[in-house]
Protein 1
Amino acid sequence: MTEDTGGHIAYVLGAACAQARRGAEVSIVTRAIDDPSLSPAYAAPVETVAPRCTIRRLVTGTRGYLCKDALEAELPALTEALLALLRDAPAIRPDVIHAHFADAAELAAAAERAFGIPWLYSSHSLARDKCASLGGGDPALERRLARERRAIAGAGAIVASSRDEAERQVPAYDAEAEGRVHRVNPGILGRGEGSAARARRWLAPFLRDATLPAILAVARPIRKKNLGALVEAYARTEGLRDRANLVIVAGLRNGLTGGCPEQDAVIADLFDRVDRHDLWGRVALPRRHDGADIADLYALAAEGGVFCNPALHEPFGLTLIEAAQAGAPLVATRNGGPVDILRSLGAGKLVDPESPEAIGRAIAEWLGDDLRPSRARAARAKAHALFDWDRWAERAERIAAPLVARTPVPARSGGTPRHLVACDIDGTLTGDHAAAARFADWAACRADDTMFAVATGRSLPEARRVLADWDLPQPDLFVTSCGTEIWRRSGAGRLTRDTGFAATLDWPRAQVAAALEAIEIEPQTAYEQRPWKLSYYGDETEAARVRAALAGMRGLRVVASHGRFIDVMPAAAGKAAAVSWVARRAGVAPEHCVVAGDSGNDADMLAAFPRAILPANALPDLDGFRGGYRGAAPFADGVLEGLARFGLAPATILPREVDHA
């Protein structure tokens, strides 16, 4: 390990080994390093990692270790070395390349030009936010941005880990790239069971009382990890230093100096803060560690302590999942991937990373929470269930398949469609796995003249992810973000925004945002704010306040749903408008459209078409709805009931106990 060893290394190894377990021959291509400070293994041209998984190292004229920021100058030589490897050894020429980081994407793009090999891209960490915070003007950073822009434009598909990356960061480079983005939860490389007792013995030389609980952080020593703010939080929060020790594992070092300039600066800053606050004996900053040490520290944090990630922005946060899987409570930055992780786990505290007071307060709350053990146990179970490399590999294989075949994923309907079936996803198609499987069977066997669409409040990447998680079929087209966007198939796994529909959605977005900021209604997270939709938290009472604040503006719609969400959009948008647009373009008459939904953001769509289906679990949002068909069965079975009633599914598709049609 070096100071550049981070979560991305664990990601590559976990992904590669999982793909190999599925029967693929996987080569991890990286740079050969011949450096006296590192093991000779890094200079070996070939190394076996696991059955069918091999590391192949590219040899160039520069053999020593290079910090990642110094790799740019080596890219031409690495590109030539990769092309020579693929040219001289056609037997190992891959079907597809997965490029990790934009530097690797430069090599992948060259391989595609030379040999026609398609490629996927995972950014892991994009520089646009960093560039914005610095105000630009850094030539090296500008060149990195250009490489990232080329990677996003050139990749056949983009595999992202977090919603922030998929829905905010990537589209900031290219708005249409979202049609090639797939969000897939990564897994975690198991470190084995750690020992808290062993961790205490290891830390004893640093601490006056190693029996105290531990506040733990594990991060590379770079400025954006914001470790200094954690020291400040520990020092400033009353009583914290008496209740717990602070343990910061900040990469590997031989001493206070001798590393990369940024590492040396961060380490010096940490030591200075510990010294100024007289924290020696309460803070441990170990110089060296290995994987077993980290497992032990996670076990220690699980015994009455807390794991904290205070990064200014965290692209994903694999260490949070590792800590959760060990049973440690979490405090994490509210910027980036941790938002998704903590929401998925249903536990943890998100904080403003620029507020040491907020960080310290969240840690203190965890330390004093009587329900802490049960909450940590529940989050631990979810962390093991949701983040799994084998599941990731299966999804990645599906994403790569149309690129390798170089054929578009065909729309299921053939010729001119006569019928259109448009369904909401959450609570309509999802909710019961057996019912979802029956709906998938219907979709696979439906008549060729029946077009299937989903109409969801989710973004495109999230709609794709949820359908995949529930083994539901990918539709002929997507109506997303509460009917403000339409995405159509356009190539091998690609979706393209319907620009014709978008052109109808003119609205004063900036003025709407300013008016709602003035009434201090809570906005949803940044990635929920779409080009033609602004989203907030609130019930129907709050929605009334929103309508009042916007009363002076014309051409707007305010939609309240699920008792806690409020969406504001152009009046010309909405699920009804989007489905009607799709039907007109496809030549499907309104009486041949069937729509299904369960909540308030489906109300306009359900009211617009005579053939509307509400499953039995429809929310109180729709209690006043009259018309359509109300299923006796919930979720997808209720939809199938309605389809049978309208002659688009056989009555026998439902098992006898739910056949109420």
Protein 2
Amino acid sequence: MEQCFFNNMSEKVVDDLRKTVVPGSRLSIAAASFSLYAFETLKDELWKIDSLRFIFTSRTFVKKRVSKESREFDISKSARERTLNEEQSARERSLFGSEFELKLRNQLNQKAIAVECAEWIRQKVKFRTNITDLNYQTFMHVKQPDDDALYTPFNEFSAVGLGVEKGNNISNFSMRVSAPLSNDYINKFNECWFDESQFEEVTQAVMDSIATVYKENSPDFIYFVTLYNIFHEFLNDISEDVLPNSATGFKESAIWQKLYNFQKDAALAIINKLEKYNGCILADSVGLGKTFTALAVVKYYENRNKNVLVLCPKKLNNNWMTFKNNQTNNPLVTDRFRYDVLYHSDLSRDSGSTNGLDLSRIIWSNYDLVVIDESHNFRNGGTATGDDFSADEFDDDIDRKENRYQRLLNQVIRKGVKTKVLMLSATPVNNRFNDLKNQLRLAYEDDSEKMDSLLNLNNGIDSIFKQAQSAYNAWVKLPASQRTTQALLETLDFDFFELLDSVTIARSRKHIEKFYDINEVGKFPERLPPISESSDLTDVAGISFDSIYLLLSQLQMSVYSPARFVHPSRIEGYIDSSEEKDLLLGREMGIRKLMSINMLKRLESSVYSFKLTLDRYHELVQKTVDKIEKYKKSIDAGNATADADIIYDIDSATLEDDEFTGSVGLGSVGLNCTLVPG
């Protein structure tokens, strides 16, 4: 038989084989894989052969390599073993058709082909596999009664190898030779076939695998196989290092027993995200038990002997202190929680105490986990004033001013032990995606490259948020009829949703009702339409909300704007330029308006709350005046000091945290105001 060349385009191997494989032929094949669809293509010829011997050129249908990661520290070796196992699995799956035989698989006749192929194998075929790491050249040898033919290379016995499908190769050349050129190939094949030390019998394993195609399976099995094929790529990314370790005993804790299934799922997912990405935002809707879910996470880390800090607004202090106090109203007293509870505003303080903790002695950098309740209060981020943070950013000898966000980032998260961050907020985004980004910055320590390396995304986290904000800005400008949720979702990049899925958990009540047993949770209360009522504040003539609002508008609140009273000749003692002066005055104006709104909120709550607020504000003003008078007297006596200890921190002002909500002091809200003698 003369030598022939095939390009598998105009001249194909399959066409020549139909002529070469005659009744009584004996076939010997060495290839990487075997496909049902190669049998289907040549079944008329293959049923007439005498026998077929098939060698898988690499490990196939034998026990996969066992990774020795637990006993060895050779990471590169372990990675190589995982790669080899993945390649072996791919070869075994190609038995049912490769990705390039999709058109054949879509004909949905795989079961009938498998039944016929299994019977053919049972009668005529034997399989062996190379169990060594040595490479083996691929070919197909056809021994006719009076002649022979050898096709090489013959990488796979599939529709691609036969030239029926193109595959992903630039070229798929093959050639046919005959004796005496083919003699060395078949002699080596015979030698290998009988070498049991290097080639193992796998015929039964191949038949068992084919049987899975045509045997009847239960609906449950089909369901789980479907789930596996949908999510197996995600399963490959799972590592025991980031999965919750049940051996810690946290599932036997009192808090775990009190959780609903949807809360348990959230707690496990949070632990996984904290271990993998160092941070997570739990953004479940109001009323879904974010605090209890977070307590389960806290218990997990406390059982691993980790130090936990809870940062919350002052008004939520009792929510957290209840579950760690040794008192009768603590339903989780047996868990013996030991986390510390501090306020958001404590990040602006260097002295005083909170819940019995001396702020001047706290080691902020020694917390392994920080839980931030109402984390949206940190959505504005912040840049420290003064010197830029660089190599000496943790040098305590450098005098610089930090706002709360910067203090949390630099002194708690970046400094000291590796700190994980769990953020709780039902509203992590106000009106811009940067709100979410600033909170996530805490998790990746404001090092976007670190997060980019952990996320399997096409773009960096900065560009993802930039694109998302641009898409949102364009969506807002659309006419009302086109400004739909679906329209916004279609304009957002897939990377944005991938990012949210990686580091956030956000579920609504509808989600819980749809995907969980509502009989276990109980029906959520129906939201009734609001009833608007307008009643008079009092029956005293001349007093109304409007009149009180006018009076509040006239209130100067000068205690919150000390810069207005600095003499022009002394202004350089506080600021460096006129531009900074305008900025400072603007900020002070903002804080005055903020406090006016705060008073209206107290009035909205109750007249009694409003009265308490006015009394506390009056006391604050009086204490400030007393300090100024004391300072004046010290000047007259000739012993004035350069620091009158009047401190007010504008950067840290919020509606939730001010001296109105607790005991009266001189505040903890922004401008460091030092009286300069003279």
Protein 3
Amino acid sequence: MSSAEGDATSGHSPSQLLRGATSVRMADDEAARLRAMFDQAPGFIAILRGPDLIYEVVNRAYYELVGQGNLIGRPVREALPELEAQGYIALAQQVYASGKPFVGHEMPVKFKMAPDAPMVDRYLDLVFQPLCAPDGSVSGVFLQGQDVTEQKRMRDALRQSEERWKFAIEGARDGVWDWDVRTNGVVYSRRYKEILGYSDTEMPDRYEEWVNRIHPEDRSRAVGALQDTAEGSAPYHSEYRLRCKDGVYKWVLSRGIVVTRDEHGHPTRLTGTMTDISDRKETEETIWRHASLDALTGLPNRRLFRDRLEQELRKAHRQQQEVALLFIDLDHFKEANDLLGHDAGDQLLAQVATRLLQCVRDSDTVARLGGDEFTVILTDLRGHPHVERAAQKIIASLAEPFQLHGEVAHVTASIGITLYPGDATEPEALIRNADQAMYAAKHAGRNRFRFFTKSMQKEAQLRVRLARDLRQALAAGQLEVHFQPVIELPSRRITKAEALLRWRHPKQGFVGPSQFIPIAEESGLIHAVGDWVFAEAAMWSERWAEKLGRSFEISVNRSPVQFLGQSNANWAHVLKEKRLPRHSIAVEITEGVLLNASTQVAEALFQYRDAGIHVALDDFGTGYSSLAYLKHFHIDYLKIDQSFVHDIDHNDGSRAIAESMIAMAHRLDMQVIAEGIERPEQEAILRAAGCDFGQGFLFSRAVPPQRFEQLLCG
């Protein structure tokens, strides 16, 4: 060690030197820690020195923001020349010169991240803070801030979404509600109050106001669904009735979502819309009544009866109880109807319905299947004596005279009774049993009831023999296809035809389709028979198209069974092979086909459409009428059942039903065919209502093809 070095350390003890070295290391460590914190800070930071604003210190976030890696020791104007034209260099110079800070919120800045790269737009919250020397003069500028680009874009997108939502809501004429769960206050839009008949200042903005306005029958369901949404994640969707200012209840559809939740996940705000669906509900109610209730008596029709029967059987199975099914047929009704006239006959049937309802409890079901056939479903039985007393009460009530516009009519009733589960467990078997027991009551002298017994299976045996004969009928040439003209009502020209099957039995003569078609469906023969009818229709369509010089459409009925089973012929392929023009064949289906539509049914309907085969919905209004399937499937023709046509010229209800069906079909881009037209007055009403086509005895019965050809070409 030199003397100079010795002099430098002279006078200091080793312990003093050790403490000094430790202090230096601690200061270096603290400085390194501060530099790391500075560099890792979430916001961007830079220190600019001197009037030229030279970069002295820059953290990592700042480098990532500007996209440059060589800043220290360079003036801002040189390092980031793009800031010059945007005014930010002048802004920093102004802070330096004035000594006053600048604070900016969501300031738009463009950075050039690389020499050849395009400008990048960013939005910054930033602060320019002057740095002062010990003498108080400004020595530099401290720059710090946050990149808020993503937050701004999210807010802009949310604002645009809200604007689009508001525009859509206003265009849809829906009301809007916004519920603050913490205060229980609800903001109702002007349109919301307008739907209920109120001005903007008349209705209190409270949650309880909404609850109290809900129809008592709907309240628990509507409120419960909203609570489910609040507690879960599924959107709110509920249809219910709200009381309007005039006291009338209006059907509405309310939808909503949870907008915000607190830190514990509890909902704090829900918002949604309310749509006036009263017109739609009225239409649905009208369609449902037409489809489910008998127009004459107001009783459940065949469709609703079947639905009720299935429900009661399921309930009885769960509760281990009995159910009684009564089939009621009026004795001598035809004679009374012919003697007194159809109007009196309708009045008699309506009075029968009233008396039947008076003979049973509210929990029981009375239905009219058609004509003079009624059914009763008795539930919650207390032994067979209860069933017998109900049957005897019905017989006694119907045996009393009926007063019909000054005339007196006398009818009695024959009743067949079957019991679940003793006689059968399936609806079809119970219906069959009750029908057979009813015929047994008639054969025993009428005006009485009979319980089903196994000996009544003779009728079933007769059906088996008929099914055996039907198997030979096709090969033996006993089946015939007749054609009924379909008239274009405006021109009264024959433009289409419906193919109808007839069976000329060698012993029984003509057997009606209502007798052998159900047998064909049950036995599976319907597939071979249906394919044969289709082939016949295609052949005659081809022949008549040649004579007319244009395609001629023939409709063929296709039962639900044919869709479910295996057919030997693909109708669409057959038409393609025959090279028949499009729209040479139409397929008529019932509503049950669509309501129970499987993938197989849907595929068949699509094949028909692609092959140019029109689809007609037969007997509309008599089955499981629903608006939903009319939207899901492509239907070309809607056929109004003759039950809505037969009294259209003297029954305002039937006329209104037919007119509404025609209007609805046209709105759904379907054409309408009215069945069962028998009188010129019916034709005139249908033509005036815009009905496209008609068929019925007024024009012609179903006739053999040779006779039809004379009608067509005559």
